[in-house]
Amino acid sequence: MKELSIFNQLRPMSVGFENIFSNWERMFEDHFDNSSSYPFYNIKKVKNDKYVLEMALSGFKKSEISVQVKDGILFISGKSSEEEKNSYLHQGIAKRAFSKQLQLSEYVECKGASMEDGMLKVELVYNPPVEKKAKVIDIK
Asked: Which pTM was predicted?
């Protein structure tokens, strides 16, 4: 990874904010990596507090995909176990190994994942504490 000098200069002055700089470095690294767009994905809002991340993984089996959440980061990776590359006359469907990291917002929880028809669906729920939710004030 290319070192980002501004972050390295600010890091010693940031007691308690070290993870912010790590997240920025990871975000910049992912943005400038040419393979970061593969695999393609959508984020769909289902309700006010529910979202679905849809990732196109044509040709992958459930057993070849890993979905994990650690420290507020959603990690999705996959590696095909097929070794039939020599038998193709033309191979247009990408089945290369991938690793995708997505920063989850505070209070967003991953509730589950499913795979159907080459589409991985990851269920996300925004669940803030009661004191953070908007409340309705009655007018008297």
From this structure: 0.68
